[in-house]
User: Which sequence fits this backbone?
């Protein structure tokens, strides 16, 4: 099996019969007869399933690990008892806890703060400014 990650789409060619049957059973990927390949938008769930089926190429494995790290950070933020802002949000009034959680989860989800940095609090945006 050969796979590539192009424009947030995972593409698989030359899957053997067993692999093709397993991929079909997931109902996540579409088979193109003209191209003889499976295609689907990239998601953490799909990459995790593919990782159980075959060993992923290094760049795709890096994407999978990053997606899983972001999801774990968002889940930690969702259940945190006393959330602290990860960024000095430009608002005049004090934010409620659920608003702080939502803003923190948005920063993590959209990649403005790395998942490893979210535990320190008030990190500021590292990758780009808002």
Assistant:
């Amino acid at each position: 099996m050969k796979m590539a990650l192009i424009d947030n789409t995972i593409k698989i060619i030359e899957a053997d019969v067993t692999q093709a049957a397993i991929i079909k059973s997931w109902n996540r990927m579409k088979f193109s007869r003209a191209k003889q390949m499976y295609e689907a938008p990239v998601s953490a769930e799909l990459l995790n399933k593919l990782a159980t089926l075959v060993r992923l190429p290094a760049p795709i494995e890096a994407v999978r690990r990053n997606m899983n790290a972001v999801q774990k950070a968002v889940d930690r933020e969702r259940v945190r008892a006393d959330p602290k802002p990860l960024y000095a949000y430009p608002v005049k009034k004090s934010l409620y806890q659920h608003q702080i959680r939502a803003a923190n989860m948005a920063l993590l989800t959209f990649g403005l703060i790395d998942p490893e940095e979210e535990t320190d609090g008030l990190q500021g945006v590292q990758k780009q400014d808002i």
Observations:
- Strands lie at 2-6, 9-13, 30-32, 37-41.
- Confidence is low (pLDDT under 50) at residues 122-130.
- The longest strand covers residues 2-6.
- DSSP finds four helices and four strands in the chain.
